[in-house]
Structure formats: C-alpha cells, structure tokens
Amino acid sequence: QVHLAESGGGLVQAGGSLNLSCTATGRSINQLIMAWFRQAPGKDREFVARITKAGDTTYYFPSVEGRFTISKDAAKNTAYLQMNNLKTEDTAVYYCAAAVVTVRVVAEEFDYWGQGSQVTVGS
C-alpha cells in the first residue's frame, strides 16, 4: 500500500512563503501522479496543483498559478509544494494526493492521500 506523509505546514504572514513536503512509501514516486488539494473550513476540497509521473509537466489552479510550484525529488521519493506570496485566502488544510492513473484533477481521481497540513496565512 502507498502511504503519503506530509510536513512543512505552519503559520506565515501574507506575502511570505512555505514549502510543503510529501514523502511516499510503498511505491516509487516516478510511478505516481502527484497532486495537492486544499480545504478551507466549511468549503469543498479544491485542486491546487498536479505533476506528472516523470515530473516534466505541471498544472495549476488559476488562483495559485505563478505563486505556487509543485515539484518532485525522485531520490528522496518526495513531492513538494513551494508556496510564495501567500495570501490570507490560501489558508486551508493542504492534502498531498497520488494516483497511478488519473484524468481529471478532482479528488475522486486520486487513490492515496496524506494526512493534511494546516497552512495559516495571517494579515
């Protein structure tokens, strides 16, 4: 079974940066499509970013495009979400997700999930 362990969440002021990590066990990360979703209190889980198995193509939700970067480090079997110029509306629990095959960037397309990391952006 694939397990995803997240780290790197925390509190940051608007305009600051955080880097989330997602380390996979049970399968090589180059065999997995990796993604990040987030969920704010009282709201639906929403897509943030996705990266291909090879790590050569990325896709972002428009509200984070240009501010967030998803990446992979195969040697560490870890995916990352570098978040820059954070805004208060980025406050949410961020979830790492993985899939062997996926077409749509919706939660039901992903098979494995991290435990969630709280990201709080203050003003």
Short description:
With 123 residues, the chain is mainly beta. The chain is built from no helices and eleven strands.
Helix and strand topology:
Blueprint: E1 3-7, E2 10-13, E3 18-25, E4 33-39, E5 46-51, E6 58-60, E7 68-73, E8 78-83, E9 92-99, E10 112-113, E11 117-122
Parallel strand pairs: 2-11
Antiparallel strand pairs: 1-3, 3-8, 4-5, 4-9, 5-6, 7-8, 9-10, 9-11
Descriptive overview:
It is built from no helices and eleven strands. The chain is mainly beta and 123 residues long. The strands form two sheets. Strands 2, 4, 5, 6, 9, 10 and 11 form a seven-stranded mixed beta sheet that branches. A four-stranded antiparallel beta sheet has the order 1-3-8-7, with no helix packed on it. Strand 7 and strand 8 form a beta hairpin. It is globular and about 40 Å long. The model has no long low-confidence stretch (mean pLDDT 96).
Q: What's the count of strands?
A: 11
Whole-angstrom Rg: 13 Å
- Report the principal-axis shape: globular
State the share of residues found in helices, binned by percent.
under 10%
Q: Main β-sheet, in a few words? A: 7 strands, mixed
Query: Low-confidence stretches at least 5 residues in length (pLDDT < 50)?
Result: none
Proportion of strand residues: over 45%
Topology order in helix (H) and strand (E) letters: EEEEEEEEEEE
**Which structural class do the helices and strands define?**
mainly beta
Average pLDDT confidence is 96
Q: How many helices in DSSP terms?
A: 0
Distance between the first and last residues' Cα: 40 Å
Give short descriptive properties of this protein.
123 residues, mainly beta, 7-stranded mixed β-sheet, globular, 11 strands, 0% helix
